Automatic annotation (TrEMBL):
GO terms for molecular function: transferase activity. The keyword Cytoplasm does not apply. This is N-acetyltransferase. It holds the Pfam family Acetyltransf_CG. It comes from Streptomyces odorifer. InterPro entries: Acyl_CoA_acyltransferase (IPR016181), Gcn5-rel_NAT (IPR045057), GNAT_YJDJ (IPR031165). Residues 14-108 form the N-acetyltransferase domain. Keywords: Transferase. It comes from the Bacteria. SUPFAM superfamilies: Acyl-CoA N-acyltransferases (Nat) (SSF55729). Gene3D superfamilies: 3.40.630.30.
């Protein structure tokens, strides 16, 4: 984590695949996260369902950093992304070079998985 004088620390982004969470951590505190699920079919993919930033940390680019890292992680692992989270979907539209669009089939598979377990949504 780094910081400049008078600025907030830059959060460390930590992926916890078992918990389905990409967390932003600053000064040992989770200040934001993307909750996601893993899909195996119709192709291997990650599907973000929520992006949350603590109110005291909003407006500092944390959600954008989380979305960018989420897509970068998927890209490094050769996985597609099925963005169910409205924030991540909007981020992807604004950053098409970093965020390949998901097929409707993949998005539907993610919606079905969430419907099977509403606690994910």
């Amino acid at each position: 984590m780094s910081e400049s004088p008078g600025e907030r620390p830059v959060p460390e982004l930590i992926d916890d695949r078992t918990a389905g969470m990409l967390r932003a951590v600053a000064e040992d505190e989770v200040v934001g996260h993307i909750q996601y699920l893993v899909l195996e079919a119709p192709e291997a993919a990650l599907a973000p369902v929520h992006t949350i930033v603590d109110p005291g940390h909003e407006g500092h680019g944390i959600a954008s950093a989380l979305a960018a890292e989420f897509y970068a992680t998927a890209d490094r692992e050769g996985l597609a992304v099925a963005p169910l989270c409205p924030y991540v979907a909007q981020w992807a539209q604004r950053h098409p070079a970093q965020a390949a669009p998901a097929s409707e089939e993949l998005l539907e598979a993610a919606r079905v998985k969430v419907a099977e377990d509403p606690s994910l949504w």
